[in-house]
Design a protein that fits this description.
Chain lengths: 334, 275, 319
């Protein structure tokens, strides 16, 4: 069980600041997801934890011991890369055993550990193949297997699903979640730009923006109580309605946030009213896009089949308890 | 009609290019099959098929010796250069350190050296080491052009290898030496073969050092042997034998070059155009 | 949680890598110092002494005398000596520059033409490309001998061809004749080196995106205009590098001249005359001075090139 602590961690490339002072505790054994738009520094932060990049300033501690200067292989980390990064000239077995070979493990131990990992991932029939003879999903499993064989204390994932097609992505996501349940003593850090991956996998999510931590919390906390318009807009699908102008002013804030499922259609005397300009039917529920005079149409989620015709004017009332209020700086007003 | 004429003209140009490229070698082959007075009648098509020139060349112990010398020298120089260049090019291509650009520039500068500029100093060194008129003189001196060339080309190849594979190896606990020997070398075989072949051709063809650092006929390399081949008098060049010897030492090169055609073009451009 | 340091202390990754890089580079640099820097230094040193081939270690320091010195005779007449007033040297300089300029110019133009031909799709392109590689693959000495035979005054096929076509009315001693020796050298060099130029140009052409041509075609721009306005400017960087490399090669030419036209005043280049003095005439120090001058000339050329052309030597990683 390894607890990871980042204390005012900074990373500069020349004069360019990429990580601008990050304080973060990753608890032992938890599944932490770094999420944010591209260029927010989430991959860099992961690489600082792995040791592939050097920390410019601040401290990184594993279980209270400073590891800034420790080389990656001695940190007890394993990493799964976006491009899988398998050694093309080695068989699957050799790919998985490479780290053990370098560590001069005994042949028996090597075989036992590679077998165990391969069985766990159901790739034991592929051990003799070369990476180019494998499908994308199989390659990703081998990459994960290679990491498991190292028996890491910290498991790092750098956007491991982004090269897979949609169906495979869902299946592999499940696979990774299962892995987390089975390897309970391993701390996992996972980088993604996809908030759905973050929501479904994470024990806690760390939202990054511009090299700084925007908010850390469980998926529920982030969904229910975003502390900024940035997080509010990033977490959840469809994204939270963010309304400015008079509507917000009426509630004493600069921006008013309300999720699509927290808006009720009322017969008359609704707080807001508008024309339905577009609808999306998802089967179990449907979305109405309503023009109420704001920059973007208001999205309203309704259960079941669509009842309301396009072009109809409807009255809407937000659930008062579910209204999020933000100040002019985009911070939540509590 | 215009179109037709155009394509006829185009193919005429193609034919001219091919004929000009191939004709001298073709003519050398024709000549190598002629003996005696047949040599002095100018023929555009093969007229005789006499192998006695080839027999003469292959029976000459000094020619065989020269070929062996050249193989030994070019092989040893290239092997030595590749051995040093692989690790050096890893450092130059994959490790960030201060002064790297300057170092690369100096290496490029050395490869552009006029060889005559080091001839006097090398002559002294060769004499000092007591290796004058031995293959070692050439093995040592050829390093001056094979080493910068291999370092330069391998650096450009090494730069193109994927970063994440190297990082995966680092996470797996590989030291830089492990990365070079266990991960990159196996991935670079095609590049190594091409670079080695180009450097080999360079060493095989070298003339100035070989001419200067050899004295006896048995120590000559192929180019010196061919340049020095003469008949009983200065006015009686043994053209038939000369052409046979030329064809013999060139055919293996041409075959190699044609086999590795695509790779060679890639290697030449890596050494030249990329910048 | 008890804060037990579980991870051993070690050097950071970049320190480990830099250290390894240092040891990886040391053997290569040592080898280059040994076979390039040291001999170069010694050559330059010799050029300031009166060292001779037979007694390499007995040379005395004589300053610039090998380059330029003067003596005043009792009659008051001043006599200049040294390479810089040696007509044979200036003849060699002129030959070298003339050779380099004309050969590189011809090779560039012809190479570009061949590259443009090979850039088109046609039946048998692979074979044509293979064919043009043949001159490149033939050792220089061998091609010099092959052409020496073809250019032979009595039995050479070139004279025969030209006579048949009627371009000449008497056989020419191409390699022996003062007027034609340089032409002979140029013919062989152009024949041998144009393929190299063509391949580099072809590689450059293939880097130009195809849609530029298609856009020009749609706009109805004539092929010639496209070449001058689009192809050539885009090809320029690649072409420049090729031209520089070839020029440096041409400036140090030795083997072709030495073998094809031995002892011809009309073709003797700087390398040839320097080696002649160094080894054959036993004017070792004098030859060293000439070698040093050639080196200086090329060094100036290279530094100009590096200074003018902003070569991306460090690669993309340095950005």
């Amino acid at each position: 069980m390894t607890q990871i602590q980042l204390k005012n961690v900074r990373k500069k490339y020349g004069a360019h600041d990429v990580i601008k002072g990050v304080d973060l505790d990753i608890r032992a054994g938890e599944f932490m997801v770094f999420v944010g738009p591209s260029g927010c520094g989430k991959s860099t932060l992961l690489r600082l934890i792995s040791g592939l990049e050097e920390i410019t300033d601040g401290t990184l501690e594993f279980d209270g011991a400073r590891v800034n200067e420790v080389i990656p292989s001695q940190r007890g980390v394993a990493m799964v890369f976006q491009s899988y990064a398998l050694y093309p000239h080695m068989s699957v077995f050799d790919n998985m055993a490479f780290g053990l070979k370098l560590a001069k493990s005994s042949k028996d131990e090597m075989h036992a550990r590679v077998r165990a990992a391969a069985e766990m991932l159901q790739i034991d029939h592929l051990l003799d193949r070369k990476p180019k003879q494998l499908s994308g999903g199989q390659r990703q499993r081998v990459a994960i297997g290679r990491a498991i064989v190292r028996d890491p204390k910290v498991f790092l994932f750098d956007e491991p699903l982004s090269n897979l097609d949609a169906a495979l992505r869902v299946a592999t996501r499940l696979e990774i979640a299962k892995l987390h349940h089975e390897m309970t003593d391993v701390t996992m850090v996972y980088v993604t730009h996809d908030q759905v991956e973050a929501m479904t996998l994470a024990d806690r999510i760390c939202v990054l923006r511009d090299g700084m931590v925007e908010q850390v919390g469980t998926p529920e906390e982030l969904y229910d109580a975003p502390n900024s318009t940035f997080v509010a807009g990033f977490i959840g699908s469809p994204k939270m309605n963010l309304l400015a102008g008079d509507i917000a002013a009426a509630h004493d804030c600069a921006t008013l946030g309300i999720r699509a499922e927290h808006i009720d259609i009322t017969k008359a005397d609704g707080l807001w009213a508008g024309k339905v300009i577009h609808t999306e039917n998802l089967g179990s529920d449907h979305y109405l896009f309503v023009e109420i005079g704001t920059a973007e149409p208001l999205v309203v989620r309704q259960p079941g089949k669509q009842q309301i015709a396009l072009g109809q004017t409807i009255n809407l009332t937000p659930q008062a308890a579910m209204i999020h209020r933000f100040d002019t700086g985009g911070r939540a007003i509590l | 009609m215009m179109r037709y004429l155009k394509s006829v003209a185009f193919y005429a140009v193609v034919v001219v290019i091919v004929v000009v490229s191939v004709f001298p070698f073709y003519y050398a082959i024709i000549t190598s099959f002629k003996t005696g007075t047949a040599l002095f009648s100018i023929d555009y098509l093969p007229t005789s098929f006499d192998l006695s020139n080839y027999r003469g060349v292959l029976d000459s112990p000094n020619f065989i010796r020269s070929v062996l010398n050249s193989v030994l020298i070019a092989g040893a120089t290239v092997g030595f250069a590749m051995f040093l260049a692989v690790t050096a090019s890893y450092a130059l291509a994959r490790v960030r350190f201060r002064g790297r650009a300057l170092l690369l520039m100096s290496i490029l500068a050395v490869s552009m050296f006029p060889q005559i500029a080091v001839l006097a100093g090398l002559f002294e060194l060769v004499r000092f080491l007591g290796i004058y008129n031995t293959p070692w003189a050439m093995i040592m001196s050829y390093t001056i052009f094979t080493l910068p060339f291999t370092v330069w080309v391998l650096t450009t190849f090494m730069r193109d290898l994927p970063l994440e594979i190297e990082e995966a190896a680092i996470i797996d606990g590989a030291t830089p030496w492990d990365i070079v020997s266990k991960v990159f070398l196996p991935l670079m075989w095609p590049a190594l073969v091409t670079t080695g072949l180009l450097a080999f051709i360079g060493a095989w063809n070298e003339f100035l050092f070989a001419l200067t650092f050899t004295a006896s006929e048995s120590q000559r390399t192929v180019p010196v042997a061919i340049a020095m081949l003469s008949g009983s008098s200065e006015f009686e060049m043994p053209w038939g034998t000369l052409m046979a010897a030329s064809v013999l030492v060139t055919v293996p090169l041409i075959i190699l070059v044609l086999i590795f055609q695509r790779k060679i073009v890639a290697g030449l451009t890596a050494g030249g155009v990329k910048g | 949680m008890t804060a037990t340091p579980t991870v051993p202390k070690g050097r950071s990754l970049s320190a480990q890598r830099k250290r390894a890089a240092f040891w990886f580079l040391v053997p290569m640099l040592a080898a280059l110092l040994f076979v390039a820097a040291w001999p170069l230094f010694r050559t330059i040193y010799f050029s300031f002494t009166d060292t001779s081939l037979t007694s390499l270690y007995d040379g005395k320091w004589i300053g610039f005398d090998n380059y330029l010195s003067y003596r005043q005779l009792s009659s008051g007449k001043v006599i200049w000596r040294g390479t810089l007033v040696d007509p044979a040297w200036w003849n060699a300089v002129w030959n070298t520059v003339r050779f380099a300029f004309v050969s590189v110019a011809l090779e560039t133009v012809l190479g570009l033409m061949v590259a443009l031909v090979l850039h088109r799709n046609f039946v048998g392109r692979g074979w044509v490309r293979a064919a043009i590689l043949i001159p490149w693959a033939i050792p220089t000495i061998v091609s010099a001998k092959m052409w020496a035979w073809m250019l032979n005054d009595q039995f050479g096929i070139i004279n025969d061809m030209l006579l048949r076509v009627g371009l000449i009315d008497a056989k020419i001693a191409w390699t022996a004749n003062i007027e034609t020796a340089m032409i002979a050298v140029l013919i062989v060099d152009v024949w041998k080196t144009t393929p190299f130029m063509a391949l580099l140009c072809l590689a450059g052409l293939q880097m130009i995106p195809k849609d530029i041509y298609e856009a020009a075609k749609v706009d109805g721009i004539s092929a010639l205009r496209v070449f001058w306005r689009v192809t050539l400017p885009l090809l320029k960087p690649a072409l420049m590098v090729a031209v520089i490399f070839r020029s440096l090669d041409a400036l140090r030419v030795f083997d072709l001249v030495y073998v094809l036209t031995p002892n011809s005043k009309a073709t003797k280049t700087m390398s040839v005359i320097a080696r002649e003095n160094l080894i054959e005439f036993d004017r070792f120090a004098y030859g060293s001075a000439q070698s040093t001058l050639l080196f200086a000339l090329i060094a100036i050329f290279v530094s100009l090139y590096i200074w003018l052309g902003k070569m991306d030597l460090g690669g993309k990683a340095d950005q």
